[in-house]
Amino acid sequence: MDNVPLYGGADAMKDENLFHTVLCDLLGIKYPIIQGAMTRVGGPRLVAAVSNAGGLGVLPTFGVSPEKLRQSIAETRTLTDRPFAVNIVPMGRAFTESRAKIVIDEGVDIATTGRGDPTTPIVSWLKQHNIKVLPVVPTVRHAIRVVEEGADAVIASGCEAGGHVGTIASLPLIPLVIDAVKVPVVAAGGIGDSRGFVAALALGACGIQMGTRFYATHEADVGPSEKRSILEASEEDTVVEAMLTGKPVRVLLDREIEKLLQLRKQGAADKELAAFATEIRKLSQRDPEKQTVVAGQISGMIKTIESAEDIINQIIEGATAICNKLHLLAGAQ
Ligand SMILES: Cc1cc2nc3c(=O)[nH]c(=O)nc-3n(C[C@H](O)[C@H](O)[C@H](O)COP(=O)(O)O)c2cc1C
Fold first, then answer.
1. pLDDT in tens for each of the 333 residues of the chain?
2. Angle between the 308-332 and 194-202 helix axes, to the nearest 10 degrees?
3. Which among 2, 13, 113, 174 could bridge 135 via Cys, Cβ 3.0 to 4.6 Å?
4. Cβ distance 116 to 135 under 8 Å?
5. Which of the listed CATH numbers 3.20.20.70, 2.40.110.10, 3.30.540.10, 3.40.50.1360 matches domain 9-221+304-332?
6. Whose CA is nearest to atom 29 of ligand 1?
7. What is the distance in A from the centroid of ligand 1 to the CA of 133?
């Protein structure tokens, strides 16, 4: 890691921004804060709000038709002239190629990639078109592989996160990935405020990616009941369930998910569990009040719906106060 400078020298002085890191230089952003792509939740309004506030907003492609993706990119450009990214989850060759082609055609110059089929060489496809690529990785092994493929940075995401998850928690995963690769590492999974931000930097990360915290924003594209369920959840109210999408995904525990867990406990066969999971998905589509909420353990800390800009400003202000306090402590010794 010695060859990866964490903080940008001249630029850090120029904008008097204590938190100007290599990630800011790589992406052309003010604060090293990425809004993780959120299927169904993070549309142009949220993405632009994050980018306008100095972070990096990321549009999802999973569950988004090609036409809708082109529209969302165009709409985001009407709302911000700052950098933003598009996320591609490699879910089969045809899907991945079609979404990558749109990213390339539309001149989007930053992409994140989610967990999906690890055999699709999505990073090298995008790199051939000079797109900056930041894959989300759940293990050291995965990080090494995407860096060999040409990733510009990696987002190490612990299993506390909302969405598809691995099994390693953020606290061990982030420094392990930092020690294993020679590109900047962004920390994700279980970060929701200035304390998590400073902790991530202390681990050696060059920035953070948050999903769940940005779910509970005015700009998130979902109704009030979903946002409320995040505010009401405690840290114990999420579970990881593989039946819903075919891969382990962290969601809020609600009545339907509880029934699914109960069925499993009673020894139901996989076929029966899969059929019930299909019912849950259909119910989500029919009734917004019964929507399965994909969210991380940090839900337990989120008690207010804010604007994306306020969240970013609070993190930066809080982090500055923490650093000043640590500095005072160091001075007192
Ligand atoms: C509602 C929701 C949807 C998500 N959808 C995606 C997605 O489409 N692609 C992806 O790579 N990650 C997705 N994620 C993961 C986030 O981008 C981010 O990495 C994660 O939320 C970080 O952990 P946190 O929730 O603890 O902040 C999703 C997360 C949430 C909460």
1. 443 445 554 455 455 789 999 999 999 999 999 999 999 999 999 999 999 999 999 999 988 999 999 999 999 999 999 999 999 998 888 889 999 999 999 999 999 998 777 778 899 999 999 999 999 999 999 999 999 999 999 999 999 999 999 999 999 999 999 999 999 999 999 999 999 999 999 999 999 999 999 999 999 999 999 999 999 999 999 999 999 998 999 999 999 999 999 999 999 999 999 999 999 999 998 888 889 999 999 999 999 999 999 999 999 999 999 999 998 777 765
2. 60
3. 113
4. no
5. 3.20.20.70
6. 163
7. 17
> Ligand 1 centre and the CA of 211: distance in Å?
5
Residues of the chain with CATH 3.20.20.70: 9-221+304-332
User: Ligand 1 in contact with 135 (CB < 6 A)?
Assistant: no
Q: Which residue has the tokens 């800009």?
A: 309
Q: Is 233 in the pocket of ligand 1 (CB under 6 A)?
A: no
C-beta of 226 in contact with ligand 1 (< 6 A): no
Tokens 């510009």 sit at which residue?
Answer: 152
**DSSP reduced 3-state for 52:** helix
Report d(CA 152, CA 100) in Å as an integer.
17
